[in-house]
Amino acid sequence: MARPMIKEAGMASLLLENPYYGYRKPKDQLRSSLKNVSDLFVMGGALILESTVLLRWLEREGYWPLGMTGISMGGYMASLAVTNWPKPIPLIPCLSWSTASSVFTTGVLSKAVNWTELEKQYAINSVYEEEIMKLLGYCGADSFKMGPELVRNADSLEHLFGLSGDDRESVGPKFRTGGEIEAGDGVHQFLSAVNSRGTSLDTLPRRPHANNTMDSAKCCRPSLHRESISFMKGVMDECTHMANFSVPVDTSLIIVVQAKEDAYIPRTGVLSLQEIWPGCEVRYLNGGHISAYLFKQNIFRQAIYDGFNRFCLKYPNLH
Questions:
Q1: Structurally, how many domains does the chain consist of?
Q2: Is 319 within the bounds of a domain?
Q3: Which residues of 153-164 are buried (b: 16+ CB within 10 A; e: fewer)?
Q4: pTM here?
């Protein structure tokens, strides 16, 4: 997307590679599959800090105007960074939404989570249920209740990819994808327990005499899987929900681009970005997550140009 922008609008891009991706990926990590839940929080916190440093450096070098954008998890990360920026700035998050909780609990990527291991850890570590759960506050409706409906709607590859007949033929059967995110300030006890004690949730205190086996009474409860998902949703909402971060200085400079049939980023049952950021604009395009990424980047670029034009008209002397 960067090369056409230079030709179309003389707009250059600085690309920040996420922690845990590319050259920043741990040697024992398989592709973009994070090993631990805590890695998501570390990633988000690091990206907020790094984005702030880069924006300040660009300012000192005389570049203007500055803006933030990204696609999918990148769009979410860009949103996080802007919540920490103390000045008006264009923000164009594409194919992302208000929280990561629905992505990992009801969206397509929930099938990639190792729920068996998480259920085991939830069962043998009393701190999850007895202490951490009390610290969690939910934002918006319970998106977990929408899970069965979402799974039914995403059964076919055509719906999952959001492809039309022509698009399916272009992509073919080789396409593979992954990904989505983040971190925030909240539940400091939990973050310190997970992030500073080690890279696995197994480092949290175990129940007495549990050793490596699950508490028999708890592990046999039919609701264990649901409890684990609810716990994951609570942690994700606490640490990744945009409502728990500062509102950007000028929300009129935010243009969100979303796909109508996006099965990766569920929007049902969670607060919308318009509710969290009054004044922002949301543009919907036809298709799903993957088809939009592959075939709609011209719409992303136009949203970026519109966001920058708004900024220049509204703040012509802000350097």
A1: 1
A2: no
A3: ebeeeeebbbbe
A4: 0.70
